[in-house]
Amino acid sequence: MTAPLFKKIVIFGVGLIGGSFALALRKADAVGEVVGFGRSEATLQQARQLGILDRIGTDAAEEVGDADLILLATPVGQMAELMARIAPYLGAHTLVTDGGSTKSDVVAAAYANLGIRIAQFVPAHPIAGAEKSGAGAAQADLYQGKKVILTPLPENSQDAVARVRRAWELCGAVVSELTPQQHDAVFAAVSHLPHLLSFALVHDLAQRDNRDLLLSFAASGFRDFTRIAASSPEMWRDICLANREALMDELGIYMQELEKLHEALAEADADALEQTFRTARELRAGWTEQ
Amino acid sequence: MTAPLFKKIVIFGVGLIGGSFALALRKADAVGEVVGFGRSEATLQQARQLGILDRIGTDAAEEVGDADLILLATPVGQMAELMARIAPYLGAHTLVTDGGSTKSDVVAAAYANLGIRIAQFVPAHPIAGAEKSGAGAAQADLYQGKKVILTPLPENSQDAVARVRRAWELCGAVVSELTPQQHDAVFAAVSHLPHLLSFALVHDLAQRDNRDLLLSFAASGFRDFTRIAASSPEMWRDICLANREALMDELGIYMQELEKLHEALAEADADALEQTFRTARELRAGWTEQ
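Predict the joint structure of the above. Result:
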């Protein structure tokens, strides 16, 4: 029997993202011991009963020194404080990755709080599972075939990036790399803006006295367009704030697009409308989720 | 054996909407003879082979005089001319309905072209089937459980409205009534605006040099939000133009909503963002398609 790739991993935040990471690495025989930290004692107990954790940690300073790999899977807003707390105790060979869905802000927090350990942090964004949450929803195959984006730092060694990449690949993920800024620009365009626009439409209708009448005639187009408006308000508040520069850029461009369409309507410009719709249709009809 | 409710119906435009109407009334034993007109001889032949039509009409003037019910199921843009063509020959008891997805413009065309026969026209909008088209897609149960909205005119007799309502109910539809203006305002809000917004987002991305990179990271939120951007450019051009006043009103209100969100982002106003998202989420999560 060969030794596992990671003798000990420590997970901060044992929910869907953190719990599934542990279960997947276990299933791949890639981990010896899994130690977990979290703010809810009940969740930690549940995670141990579900076989996600071997042990519930009591002293982070003690646990992180001999860990091979640490996953920060808390909400992004809590990461700066957490980094500051563990930085003095990180071992020289301990790697750190995270599961945050924005990256520039997490990287800024890392530079501010990880000090000389910055080279050991390889940021990641797993694109998986927003509908469910909690340790109870964790599953070993959550990342199977899903995308994980690494946003390596100039300070990272090739070996550090390769080992973190390997961890996510052992979870079944398809790993790619972007800079933190590229990452945030891409997700502002294809994820954060659509969420904002969908929330905006439903909020707009919610203000109307005749909203019940309106909704009684809403059909499948409305259903699909607004599905993401049922997402978590807290999570999307945090994402919008964390990525607000890129999101404001995207929103500005989109508002110009709407100005043009408003003008085309005002001028009854059939060609402009049709050409816009045709260009959109061609791109969308040719796209399939990968 | 009792006589069918409609001894003879004439369908102009034997595609999904017109063909399904005929098949449904046949299945309900509510029609004697079905005569069809259309611009494509091949489609008409196919419709006869599929049992949608008993006869292909050759002279509209001759066929509409003794018809009990006429369905105008052509694109909305062709209805004015069609109304002008048949108006002089309509029988005193011939009722006319339509399948157009905008109503103010169809009603204006009717007032302009039906002359003294205006009282015999009861406008309708069946909310059914946009994905497929053509006579080959027609089916007897297309309208089963689907909404049909009548927008009766002040000139209509109660009996005329009741008979047209009965025809759609015999197709299996759930029939309700709005004024043409109410209808167009409702659909501008819950259908036409979302389509415009979805087309706009994809068109926006289509302009980018890095569109392939962007789309490679698009996931389920993008997929749902942009599904309707794969709709027919011609059809949506016509709908946007036909309902442009109401749609411009809706687009204006929506752009104000986006201005407010842009401001909230600029000021990093977490409360404003969360409250907007929360209001939207509550309405959307409580809504189910009827």
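Residues 68 and 94 of chain B are 5 Å apart (CA to CA).
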